[in-house]
Amino acid sequence: MCGIFGYLGRRNAVKTAIDGLKKLEYRGYDSAGIAGVFQGQIIGCKEVGKVEGLEREVQELDFQLESAIAHTRWATHGKPSQINAHPHYDNARSLALVHNGIIENHLALKKELVSQGARFVSETDTEVISHLIASLYKGDLLFAVRKAIGMLKGAFAFALIHKDFPDQIVVVGHESPLVIGVGEQEMFVSSDPVAFSEFTHNVVFELLQPINRCLNGNDEVAVVHRDTFEVFDAAGQRSEKKIEKLTAKFGTASKGAYEHYTLKEIFEQPQTIRSAYVDRLSEEFGTAHFEEVQTEMPELLDVERILILGCGTSWHAGYLGAYLFEDMARIPTQLEISSEYRYKNPLVPHRTLVIAISQSGETADTIAAVRELKAKGTNVHGSTLSRIADACINMRAGPEIGVCSTKAFTSQVVILSLLCLAMARMRNMHKEDGKRFITAIEDLSAQVEQILETAPHIEKIANKYAHHENFFFVGRRYMYPVSLEGALKLKEISYINANGYPAGELKHGAIALINENCPTVALCSNKGTYEKILSNIMEIKARNGPVIAIAESGQKGLEGIVDDIIWIPEVIDELAGIPATVATQLLAYYIARKRGTDIDKPRNLAKSVTVE
Ligand code: G6P
Prior knowledge:
Layout (H helix, E strand, L loop, with lengths): L1 E8 L3 H10 L8 E8 L2 E8 L2 H11 L5 E7 L14 E2 L5 E9 L2 H10 L10 H11 L4 H11 L2 E9 L6 E6 L4 E4 L3 E5 L11 E3 L16 E4 L4 E4 L5 E2 L4 E2 L15 H7 L1 H9 L3 E2 L4 E2 L8 H5 L3 E6 L1 H17 L4 E5 H4 L10 E5 L7 H12 L31 H20 L4 H23 L1 H11 L4 E6 L3 H16 L2 E6 L17 E4 L6 H12 L5 E6 L11 E5 L8 H19 L17
Parallel strand pairs: 18-19, 18-20, 21-22, 21-23, 23-24, 24-25
Antiparallel strand pairs: 1-4, 1-10, 2-3, 2-4, 5-6, 6-7, 7-8, 8-12, 9-10, 9-11, 11-15, 12-13, 13-14, 16-17
Helix pairs in contact: 1-2, 3-4, 4-5, 7-12, 7-13, 9-12, 9-15, 12-13, 13-17, 14-17, 15-17
Bound molecules: 6-O-phosphono-alpha-D-glucopyranose.
């Protein structure tokens, strides 16, 4: 898991690499490092923490390199420390290497290398690759790398510089992304083209889809020179690679007047919700369509079951989607966490539509789960997992920089609602009902706007409760997934222990934890179960638990009972998850702000987790 960057060319290699790394920090920010060749020697610099720490250090040292490889880390093997930071070297410091992925057989390889005399300094799996290549190197670097990758198990992408070849970066992408950028007398290597897109749009990857920006799936090795590159297959034969043009737009992200990206992204939701449905609704026929999947639409009619996969926030969006598909389209729907599903040997009946949800399209667990389904011969309709999916629906939410996902969630739920509408209309939904649903979707932006206007009120409530260390979020039906998402936001950015719970389940055990120091956020918007959640609130109050209700204007019976209320507009149950989630996002944001945490880059997390 991590971001890799490499540079060979006419610019200042250190500055270019540091600037590139900053754009890869979404992949991890536990430590950062840079290395390369200077006057015939491999030299490097590493720092614990974010890239800006490394930047300060290289500036103070006036660190110079002729060519550079660099890395920003999300720790898997070994804690975040200077010694575990990449690049990793062999004992003779003949090479430096940066890696993204996990070497699953690293312990066996390490044992063997140690018996041959290698001295390991770090706790990482990566260091095995450096020693292995060094042990196999007898003057032919390409041969040593090819031999080494045949011995490695796992998913990995790496870039290395050897002191005997100061004008080369050798790169490998094996089930982990790595892309080459071809500039004018300069070459880039990166986990993601976003890191060099300001310099060149000429790229080399197998497909232009966001998910498999891997160079290869066949253990190819690329040798990148200052003005060209060569790719060799597993047998050492040259293979031709097309240089393609990047079509994606990479805007430069800015916080504008907002204190944090997270807050800016919460406030962007009226627009991003609109972008998710605009051009995709057919008011006349009361249905929805996606240009991305139009050709497959007849297949959707044959779908008999749906399987939804995702991780984290995307899984929560999928939860709401699963309720919708069963309620509205009457299609049996199964929801699975990607990392669990992959190892289940699942039963996948014929005519199952698989919807893989991912903000980044790079989450290793979701990719692996979809690959497993493909291996079973399933017809996969995915979202952003573009290469392996048969169709991809774009969220159109723009880049999400804050590590905790906010606007991506609401866009995902809108898109699932549209897909559900289309499938329901193909089945038993009446046109007039479809039209009413469309109106409810079109009202969402303005409703979210109204909630954002209440931010000062939510901030006051947040300040009142920010000192508590334990929270519950409870809801029923459509509010249960919202309780999971609200609790996750609070955990991620304020480091408070928060549990999302079905409100009716609390009494079966978790209620033992309720006391005056454990507030509960009660999500009341699901009108079909409103009376029931009121009873659950009474049960909490009877045990002295403070309650913050998030309720729809007009819902009676809360005042005088709960401690605080965040009022949100009235929305149909099927879509109520969107406004209610926005209220929980603001609550989590202001609590985290009061506690003074690093909201945009919370500790231990990464925006995109590219290891299983
Ligand atoms: C990481 C992020 C979460 C995100 C999850 C799934 O854990 O920190 O915010 O929800 O990955 O990411 P995806 O890109 O697949 O939606």
